[in-house]
Amino acid sequence: MNISTAFAPPFKLVAPFFIIGVSTFVVTILLMFGFEFENLHYFNSSTLAWVHIFLLAFVMLIILGAMAQLIPVVLEVGHLAVDLYYAIYPLMILGTLLMAFGFYNLPILLPFGGVTVLIALFIFLIETFLTILKVKKINFIISTIIISNIFLLLGVIIGIALALNYSGIFSFDSFKLLKAHIFLVFFGYVGTTVMSMSLILLPMFWLSHSFTWVYVKTAFILLCFSICFMLFFTFSSITLVEDIAYTLCISSLFLYFLQIFVIYKKRVRVEVDIYFKSMLFSYFSLFTSLSLFFIYFFYSKDNLLLCASWLLFVGFIGFLISGHLYKIVPFLVWYERFSIFVGKKRVPMLNDLIPKKSSNFQFLNSSIGVIIVSLSFLLESDTLYKSGLCFLTLGVIFLLKDILYMAKIKEETYVF
């Protein structure tokens, strides 16, 4: 994979995505203190509000900001209309707030929030597809970007239909559509994007090379088939089709985990930094989550599903994002503010821009918090639940502090 920074947009464009996203991460953890432990269920209005805040204003904002940088870097073409990104994050925040209030108190706000999010994502999709049209040769990474964005568009459209149903405007069986919505947005877009971007970022940061892509390519194909089967199940009543969708999805994620292990074994860099530790915890959470989903498939206990979902969301996605932010933000800051001085003055290394003690403190508290909350779900202990959230809150606050610190680094601090 050829990597070129010549077409990357300015840091001031993507910085709000990262800062607002991590700030939302802090808010979502604080919101969990108000949950009644026994009422945690995926059909509970508070749970639905939390999930949408977490996914839209944290995960999606971070991904959109990262894609603003990575798409031109990977495609080696400039954005067609990069200034459109300045409209995306305000619309995403507004849409998320409307949907959150809609789930909590005013269901009539859900369609308005959904349409606002749709407009934001539609701007992103149009700009992305028009930028891809400038590419002369389509490779595996580019094809995954195209397919993932198609899944995103379908998922948002189904989400609008669910919002209309939840607000009472329409009336239909929402349970099947909810599954299709989850598969299209979380696995179809977030999942395939994580798979493709991992093949760029992990080898670059770990200095891995000469590894096979067969596992992730197979995982990508299985995941696409899984989503198609779930869509087919949405418009049918064949239980076997749903079982096949779940089986293919879990199998694809296990294959992706195997691909990450192959990249890890081929690494040259052995430094145990904050990125390395975050990735290990992230993929440990993914493996544990998949194992719990597999067990739930046979025993159908709600606490297993709750714990598996928690580890997938906060353990895997949360640490995957935080770990990469400790690499992406310093790199973008260094490239924009220090690269021009190379060969002229003394400039810092990338690791010099990372607050090591603070980042390690963040990792320690966040990882302890995730583990304790996971145990609280398995043991059904409210005391453990609140204790784990205390550790996690401290961790995510320090994550936000570190991102703000790195984003505000000035040239005069390091250049001599």
Structural write-up:
With 416 residues, the chain is mostly helical. Among the domains are: 1-136; 305-416, no CATH class. The protein has 13 helices and no strands. It has helices spanning 11-31, 45-75, 85-104, 109-132, 140-166, 174-206, 214-234, 239-265, 274-299, 302-337, 356-379, 382-407, 411-414. Helix 2 packs across helix 6, helix 6 (174-206) packs antiparallel against helix 7 and helix 9 (274-299) packs parallel to helix 11 (356-379). It is globular and about 65 Å long. Keywords: Membrane, Transmembrane, Transmembrane helix. This is Membrane protein. The chain crosses the membrane at residues 12-35, 47-72, 84-104, 110-133, 140-162, 182-207, 219-238, 244-264, 276-298, 310-335, 361-378, 384-400.
Taken from the alpha-carbon principal axes, the silhouette is globular
* Biggest sheet descriptor: none
Multimeric status of the protein: single chain
pLDDT < 50 stretches? none
Strand content: under 5%
| DSSP, total strands | 0
